[in-house]
Amino acid sequence: MKKSIGSSKIVVEETNNGGEKPMLYLDDIKVEFESQGFKRTHIGISPNKDKSVLFLESVKSTQTVRCPYCGGSVYIYENGQVKLKDIPIWRGTTHIWNFFIHRYQCNCCHETFTEEIPFKYPGTRITYRAANWIKGFLQQKMSIKAIQELIGIHWDTIRKVQREIMDEAIWKREKMLREEGYKPRILAVDEFAIHKGHSYATCVMDLEQGDILWVGKGRAMKDFEKFFEDVPSDSLSAVIAVAMDMNASYNKLVTKHLPKARIVYDRFHMQSQFARDVLGSVRLDEARRHKAKEKEILADISDDTDKETMKSLKQEAKAEKQEYSQLKKLRWSLLTNSDKLSDSKTEQLQSILQDHHDLAVCYAMKEEMCILYELTDYQQAVVGWTKWFQAAKESEIPASVRFAVQKEKRRPPKSLCKSE
User: Fold this and answer.
1) Is residue 243 a contact partner of residue 186, using CB atoms and an 8 Å limit?
2) How far is CA 228 from CA 8, 192, 288, 399, in A?
């Protein structure tokens, strides 16, 4: 037989309103509730009906309580109150359970302790019912802020419930992987900013499974070294490749601890750095040149300039200003793959590139880089990347030359092939 943990019932007091049909009022409803050592005394509702409080008192006999330290008998040392938020009775209200509890002192060791409240969710000031309610919202992918605005419980409490859900899911996942004898094959290591960029952390993940294997504060080599100290070496014995940012120094540690693993400088970082350091730099240089030319032309206009010359100079200045404006707005067209541009955007881009040689060269190299990353044949990739770096250095474009020299130093030919 299933053991009962308590009982409750709702009692409606008799209403006499002159022989008319009885009408049910909120004040007529009385709740009798007793469970797990606590009994309901009364319920209070604020005048504007935005808050309700359920008062409960301890009915536990002192003779049944024992000291958790020595097991001796105890006596009531003092009384206290604990308030827990619960599920609202109706929409737009706050519902609180107010517990009148005892604080005991041992007759033997004289230690004091507080009576436990079985309804209290650990580490919070809410009931188990409210915690399960929050879990339901979190499972529907609602944000913490949205839940806080909906139910009125502090966001930090919601975050604690969320963290417990995450910890439980991680524990189950780790247990399953251990039982399956899991060993990762392809890893990725990268840094990310925390606290609005003022500090950084390093993350290692399994690219095949999508699991986060390790996260540590800092982004220096000594910080990444902790990964190999925390993770047993035998669990990394199956690693065949590690993807990373080409700017980082992680390759030295990977070569040291995983000598058989290939180092893959991933496509995202390579292309994003080229777009920022080369395409972006050249585009802005060209834009500044047009801006400076416009100012130079306008400076040549004086009171002595005749009308025809003034009109011509103003037209030239206007043209330089338009070139400047077009280049400033060209960023996303340059970064977007050519096959995804609309016909109008393609025509506009080609028109601008025809008048800006360095920018056209860098854009062509960006498109060639995309093609190289799609190669699956090893020999074609080695030849293709060798020619690409050579062309970048021979372009005589300062930003392109710097990029090629910097990246070629870190290039084992095999690492630039597309990883499966």
Assistant:
1) yes
2) 57, 19, 48, 36
404 burial via Cβ count (<10 Å: 0-12, 13-18, 19+): buried
pLDDT on residue 4:
40
**CA-CA distances (angstroms) from residue 96 to 77, 93, 100, 123, 153?**
26, 10, 13, 17, 11
Sole residue written with tokens 């004289």 = 110
Q: b vs e for 61-84, b when ≥16 Cβ sit within 10 Å of the residue's Cβ?
A: eeeebebeeeeeebeeeeeeebeb
Yes or no: say if 180 and 193 are a contact pair by the CB < 8 Å rule: no
**DSSP for 373-396, written as a single string:** TT---HHHHHHHHHHHHHHHHHT-
| Residue pLDDT, tens place only, 63-120 | 889 999 999 999 998 999 999 999 887 777 888 999 999 999 999 999 999 999 999 9
End-to-end CA distance of the chain: 58
Q: What percent of the residues of the chain are helix, what percent strand, and what percent coil, each to the nearest 5?
A: 45, 25, 30
The tokens describing 404, both together, are 């090629």
162 close to 140: Cβ distance less than 8 angstroms: no
CA-to-CA distance for 25 and 15, rounded, in angstroms?
A: 9
Nearest to 26 by CA among 44, 9, 7: 44
Pick from 404, 408, 411, 413: nearest CA to 379 = 413
Say whether pLDDT at 414 is over 60: no
Which pTM value belongs to this model? 0.60
CB-hemisphere CA count at 13 Å for 155? 6
The C-alpha atoms of residue 328 and residue 335 are separated, in whole angstroms, by 13
Contacts of 14 (CB under 8 A, 6+ apart): 22
d(CA 348, CA 18): 86
Question: Is the CB of residue 122 less than 8 Å from the CB of residue 79?
Answer: no
Alpha-carbon gap, residue 51 to 244, rounded angstroms: 55
State phi, psi for 59 to the nearest 5 degrees.
-115, 15
Give one DSSP letter per residue of 65-96, joined into a string.
-B-TTT--BEEEEEEEEEEEEE--SSTT-EEE
Residues 6+ apart with CB under 8 A from 181: none
DSSP result, 271-288: HHHHIIIIIHHHHHHHHH
Question: Are 284 and 311 within 8 A, CB to CB?
Answer: no
Residue 120 sits at φ, ψ, to 5 deg, of -80, 125
